[in-house]
Amino acid sequence: VSRGFLLLTFLSCNDKHGDKCYYFSNISLFWKGSRSFCEDLGADLVKIDSREEQEFLVEKVKNFVMDTILGSFWIGLTDSEVEGNWTWVDGSPLDSRSDGCFWLEGEPNNAAGRSVSGEDCVAIVKRGVEDLNTWNDDTCSFAHKSICEKPRISPVSGTGELLNKR
């Protein structure tokens, strides 16, 4: 699949919620590679701002055809700078007191099973989509699919939703 096709697919904004467009990547990459992939599309890994956004993403993940039930999607949350200090890709902290924290039971656990450095990056796990608690901290060097996010923009005015003419 060419980058141009991916960009065109993303620009059509078929997966949208609120004022954002999403691209669910079929390519499994390390966390940094996933972030670079999203940046190449003019986006970044998803930052989940609300319960409603988490509901939207979980529903999409639930219906996404995966090669394994254990499939996961990287999101833009990491504690790679300071252990236990979770921050989004835009530098804002995760507010664990708000309605926007959706860890699987027992997570985050920083398990060092796959890497001595532990688990510093977060993925939405498909196996957990029975409810909204789908976040798992994982080793950043493990390959997962990813969810890219960008604002919806009109090609005419530069603001608002991209117009779909079908």
Automatic annotation (TrEMBL):
UniProt cross-references to Pfam families, sorted A to Z: Lectin_C
InterPro entries referenced in this protein's UniProt entry, alphabetically: C-type_lectin-like (IPR001304), C-type_lectin-like/link_sf (IPR016186), C-type_lectin/snaclec_domain (IPR050111), C-type_lectin_CS (IPR018378), CD209-like_CTLD (IPR033989), CTDL_fold (IPR016187)
Location of the C-type lectin domain: 17-149
MF terms (GO), sorted A to Z: carbohydrate binding
SUPFAM superfamilies in the record: C-type lectin-like (SSF56436)
Keyword line: Disulfide bond, Lectin
PANTHER family: MANNOSE, PHOSPHOLIPASE, LECTIN RECEPTOR RELATED
Protein name: C-type lectin domain-containing protein
Source organism phylogeny: Eukaryota, Metazoa, Chordata, Craniata, Vertebrata
